[in-house]
Amino acid sequence: MNIKWTAFIGTVVILSCLTMAGVVYSGTGDQAIIEGTILIERQDKAHLSTLVKVTGQQAISSALEAVPGKVIELELENEDGYLVYGIEVASADGSVSSVEVDAGSGKVLLVEPGNNEGKQEGLLFGRDEEDEMDDEQDD
Protein backbone atom coordinates (compact mmCIF):
# COMPACT_ATOMS: atom_id res chain seq x y z
CA MET A 1 0.00 0.00 0.00
CA ASN A 2 2.94 2.33 0.64
CA ILE A 3 4.09 2.05 -3.02
CA LYS A 4 0.62 3.00 -4.35
CA TRP A 5 0.47 6.02 -2.04
CA THR A 6 3.96 7.18 -3.14
CA ALA A 7 3.02 6.74 -6.82
CA PHE A 8 -0.19 8.73 -6.31
CA ILE A 9 1.61 11.63 -4.59
CA GLY A 10 4.33 11.60 -7.26
CA THR A 11 1.71 11.78 -10.01
CA VAL A 12 -0.06 14.69 -8.30
CA VAL A 13 3.22 16.59 -7.91
CA ILE A 14 4.18 16.04 -11.57
CA LEU A 15 0.75 17.12 -12.82
CA SER A 16 0.86 20.21 -10.60
CA CYS A 17 4.28 21.17 -11.98
CA LEU A 18 3.12 20.70 -15.57
CA THR A 19 0.01 22.80 -14.92
CA MET A 20 2.09 25.61 -13.42
CA ALA A 21 4.49 25.51 -16.35
CA GLY A 22 1.55 25.77 -18.76
CA VAL A 23 0.14 28.78 -16.92
CA VAL A 24 3.50 30.56 -16.95
CA TYR A 25 4.03 29.79 -20.66
CA SER A 26 0.54 30.93 -21.66
CA GLY A 27 1.08 34.21 -19.81
CA THR A 28 3.97 35.14 -22.09
CA GLY A 29 1.62 35.55 -25.09
CA ASP A 30 2.23 34.76 -28.72
CA GLN A 31 3.52 38.17 -29.76
CA ALA A 32 7.15 38.49 -30.61
CA ILE A 33 9.02 41.39 -29.07
CA ILE A 34 10.61 43.48 -31.76
CA GLU A 35 14.03 44.96 -31.20
CA GLY A 36 15.07 47.45 -33.83
CA THR A 37 18.05 49.74 -34.10
CA ILE A 38 16.36 53.13 -33.61
CA LEU A 39 14.93 53.71 -30.14
CA ILE A 40 12.05 56.20 -30.11
CA GLU A 41 11.92 58.91 -27.47
CA ARG A 42 9.25 61.18 -28.99
CA GLN A 43 6.08 60.10 -30.78
CA ASP A 44 5.32 62.89 -33.26
CA LYS A 45 5.40 61.82 -36.93
CA ALA A 46 7.60 64.74 -38.02
CA HIS A 47 10.27 63.65 -35.54
CA LEU A 48 10.05 60.00 -36.59
CA SER A 49 10.83 60.78 -40.22
CA THR A 50 14.08 62.51 -39.22
CA LEU A 51 15.35 59.35 -37.53
CA VAL A 52 15.12 56.90 -40.45
CA LYS A 53 18.30 55.58 -42.04
CA VAL A 54 16.58 53.37 -44.60
CA THR A 55 14.31 54.78 -47.31
CA GLY A 56 10.76 53.61 -47.74
CA GLN A 57 11.73 52.02 -51.06
CA GLN A 58 14.54 50.03 -49.38
CA ALA A 59 12.08 48.86 -46.72
CA ILE A 60 9.63 47.82 -49.43
CA SER A 61 12.36 45.82 -51.18
CA SER A 62 13.13 43.98 -47.93
CA ALA A 63 9.44 43.30 -47.29
CA LEU A 64 8.86 41.96 -50.80
CA GLU A 65 11.81 39.60 -50.44
CA ALA A 66 10.11 38.15 -47.36
CA VAL A 67 6.56 38.21 -48.75
CA PRO A 68 6.15 38.41 -52.53
CA GLY A 69 3.20 40.48 -53.67
CA LYS A 70 1.99 44.06 -54.01
CA VAL A 71 2.55 46.71 -51.32
CA ILE A 72 -0.73 48.23 -50.25
CA GLU A 73 0.43 50.26 -47.25
CA LEU A 74 3.66 51.75 -45.91
CA GLU A 75 3.82 53.59 -42.60
CA LEU A 76 6.44 54.56 -40.03
CA GLU A 77 5.45 53.05 -36.69
CA ASN A 78 6.52 52.71 -33.08
CA GLU A 79 6.81 49.00 -32.41
CA ASP A 80 7.86 48.10 -28.86
CA GLY A 81 9.68 51.46 -28.61
CA TYR A 82 11.60 51.07 -31.88
CA LEU A 83 11.09 52.82 -35.20
CA VAL A 84 9.96 50.44 -37.92
CA TYR A 85 8.24 50.54 -41.27
CA GLY A 86 4.88 48.78 -41.10
CA ILE A 87 4.23 47.37 -44.55
CA GLU A 88 1.16 45.49 -45.72
CA VAL A 89 1.63 43.20 -48.69
CA ALA A 90 -1.17 41.63 -50.74
CA SER A 91 -0.22 38.22 -52.12
CA ALA A 92 -1.51 36.74 -55.37
CA ASP A 93 -4.03 34.62 -53.40
CA GLY A 94 -5.61 37.81 -51.99
CA SER A 95 -4.21 37.43 -48.48
CA VAL A 96 -2.68 40.47 -46.78
CA SER A 97 0.46 40.03 -44.66
CA SER A 98 1.98 42.59 -42.29
CA VAL A 99 5.74 43.02 -42.42
CA GLU A 100 7.76 45.05 -39.90
CA VAL A 101 11.08 46.35 -41.30
CA ASP A 102 13.68 48.07 -39.11
CA ALA A 103 13.97 51.73 -40.16
CA GLY A 104 17.65 51.73 -39.21
CA SER A 105 18.95 48.59 -40.90
CA GLY A 106 16.32 47.53 -43.44
CA LYS A 107 16.15 44.09 -41.79
CA VAL A 108 12.79 42.31 -41.67
CA LEU A 109 11.91 42.01 -37.99
CA LEU A 110 8.51 40.34 -38.15
CA VAL A 111 6.13 38.83 -40.68
CA GLU A 112 2.54 38.28 -39.65
CA PRO A 113 1.02 35.83 -42.15
CA GLY A 114 -1.77 37.07 -44.32
CA ASN A 115 -5.49 36.64 -44.18
CA ASN A 116 -8.14 37.05 -46.86
CA GLU A 117 -10.19 39.59 -44.90
CA GLY A 118 -8.00 42.61 -45.60
CA LYS A 119 -7.66 45.09 -48.36
CA GLN A 120 -8.04 44.08 -51.96
CA GLU A 121 -6.59 45.16 -55.31
CA GLY A 122 -6.49 48.87 -56.06
CA LEU A 123 -4.83 50.01 -52.86
CA LEU A 124 -1.31 51.38 -52.81
CA PHE A 125 0.37 53.07 -49.85
CA GLY A 126 -2.94 53.39 -47.98
CA ARG A 127 -4.74 55.12 -50.85
CA ASP A 128 -7.61 53.57 -52.72
CA GLU A 129 -9.07 54.19 -56.17
CA GLU A 130 -11.63 56.70 -54.82
CA ASP A 131 -8.80 58.85 -53.39
CA GLU A 132 -7.04 58.77 -56.76
CA MET A 133 -10.27 59.71 -58.58
CA ASP A 134 -10.82 62.60 -56.13
CA ASP A 135 -7.27 63.82 -56.84
CA GLU A 136 -7.88 63.67 -60.59
CA GLN A 137 -11.10 65.67 -60.23
CA ASP A 138 -9.26 68.32 -58.21
CA ASP A 139 -6.81 68.90 -61.10
Automatic annotation (TrEMBL):
Transmembrane segments: none annotated. InterPro entries: PepSY. It comes from the Bacteria. Residues 128-139 have a biased composition (Acidic residues). Pfam families: PepSY. Residues 53-111 form the PepSY domain. Residues 110-139 are annotated as: Disordered. This is Peptidase propeptide and YPEB domain-containing protein.
